[in-house]
């Protein structure tokens, strides 16, 4: 009887861990003529969804964030009208490797 209780508890814990939305580091940029309200809406959705805005760019219209995949799908759909470019944040070198 104790073993089955342990198994149920373990499965419950594992299913809770699996249900966690995986966070990605992304850079989201928009064309210069995109209204600021569009960026504000995207940033709000990310923060409301448990993500974090890690950097706001000054020279280009965009920001970097850590965001869950589900929220990223929503922001991607909103950004299609304004030609948002969403890419995973990564290290880029000019030497072909690190």
Look at the structure and give the mean pLDDT: 83
Distance between the termini: 54 Å
CATH homologous superfamily heading of the domain at 21-88: Peptidase S8 propeptide/proteinase inhibitor I9
Strand neighbour order, sheet with most strands: 2-3-1-4
Q: The CATH topology of the domain at 21-88 is what? A: Alpha-Beta Plaits
| CATH class wording of the domain at 21-88 | Alpha Beta
Return Rg in Å.
19 Å
H and E string:
HEHEEHE
Helical content (DSSP H or I, runs of 4+)? 40-55%
CATH architecture descriptor of the domain at 21-88: 2-Layer Sandwich
Q: Helical region count?
A: 3
Q: List low-confidence stretches.
A: 5-10, 13-18
Category from helices, strands and their pairing: alpha+beta
**Quick one: biggest sheet?**
4 strands, antiparallel
Strand coverage percent? 15-25%
- What's the total number of strands? 4
Shape: globular
In short:
By secondary structure, this protein is an alpha+beta fold. 42% of the residues lie in helices and 23% in strands. Mean pLDDT is 83; it is low at 5-10 and 13-18.
What does this structure look like?
Strands 2-3-1-4 form a four-stranded antiparallel beta sheet. The termini are far apart. Helices cover 42% and strands 23% of the residues. α2 runs antiparallel to α3. The chain has a domain at 21-88: Alpha-Beta Plaits (2-Layer Sandwich), CATH 3.30.70. It is α+β, with helices and mostly antiparallel strands and 98 residues long. InterPro entries: PBI_I9, S8pro/Inhibitor_I9_sf. Keywords: Signal. Belongs to the protease inhibitor I9 family.
């Amino acid at each position: 009887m104790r073993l089955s209780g342990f198994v149920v508890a373990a499965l419950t814990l594992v299913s809770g861990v699996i249900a966690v939305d995986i966070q990605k580091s992304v850079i989201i940029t928009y064309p210069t003529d995109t209204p600021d309200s569009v960026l504000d809406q995207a940033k709000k959705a990310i923060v409301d969804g448990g993500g974090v805005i890690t950097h706001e760019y000054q020279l280009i219209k965009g920001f970097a964030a850590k965001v869950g995949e589900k929220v990223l799908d929503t922001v991607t759909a909103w950004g299609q009208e304004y030609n948002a470019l969403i890419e995973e944040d990564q290290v880029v070198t000019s030497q072909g490797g690190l």
